[in-house]
Every structure is written in structure tokens, then in C-alpha cells.
């Protein structure tokens, strides 16, 4: 498949200022990142911006559901549980960004 510059026939196309690709755990986001690296490489101005979002956990709801609490009652959430869930999410996010960084390195790009 031709790159945007090849499709236009203009090898003097201006460089893109910034390109951002959102990634998550899905194959689709990996393909989107690889597509951007393959097809936009001639016009990328480094660094490529890679975005991922950490989900917000409604901790009161999670703990109430896990203890079988009746609707409308929410037991207090232990601070240790909150810290543990946040740390686990940070680790998952870092693993995701490390994978994206490795894909970028394979294509000779950085973020």
C-alpha cells in the first residue's frame, strides 16, 4: 500500500507536527500503531506520541459488590485495597507502554 506522500506524488510534503496513537491491550490498537509507523514514517516529526488511559475504578461499588452488600449500602474501602489496585493498574499500563516502545523501536521510531 502506498504511503500518503506516494499517493500524492509529492516527495517534498511538509512534515507532520505531531502524531498521536492511542493504545490499549487490543490487537486493533497494535495494528493502528504499526500502520502509523509504516505509513506516516516519511512525514513524522519525532517523537511519536503514544497515549493510553488508565480506567477509573468506582471503588465503593466494586467493594460493595464483592461483599454482596445490598443495593444502597457501601462498606468502607480499605486504603490498602485502593493502593493495591492503583499499583496493579500502573504496572499494567507500564507493560503496555513498553510493548508500544518495542514496536516503535522495530520501526526505527521513538516516543
TrEMBL record:
Cited InterPro entries? Rossmann-like_a/b/a_fold (IPR014729), UspA (IPR006016)
Where the record annotates domain UspA, the positions are 17-84
Q: Which domain of life is it from?
A: Eukaryota
Recorded protein name is UspA domain-containing protein
Q: Which organism is it from?
A: Zea mays
* Higher taxonomy: Eukaryota, Viridiplantae, Streptophyta, Embryophyta, Tracheophyta
Amino acid at each position: 500500500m502506498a504511503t500518503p506522500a506516494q499517493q500524492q506524488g509529492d516527495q517534498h510534503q511538509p512534515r507532520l507536527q505531531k502524531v498521536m496513537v492511542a493504545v490499549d491491550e487490543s490487537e486493533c490498537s497494535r495494528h493502528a500503531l504499526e500502520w502509523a509507523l509504516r505509513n506516516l514514517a516519511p512525514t513524522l516529526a519525532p517523537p511519536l506520541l503514544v497515549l493510553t488511559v488508565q480506567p477509573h475504578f468506582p471503588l465503593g461499588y466494586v467493594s460493595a459488590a464483592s461483599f454482596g452488600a445490598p443495593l444502597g449500602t457501601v462498606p468502607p474501602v480499605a486504603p490498602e485495597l485502593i493502593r493495591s489496585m492503583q499499583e496493579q493498574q500502573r504496572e499494567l499500563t507500564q507493560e503496555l507502554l513498553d510493548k508500544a516502545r518495542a514496536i516503535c523501536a522495530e520501526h526505527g521510531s521513538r516516543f
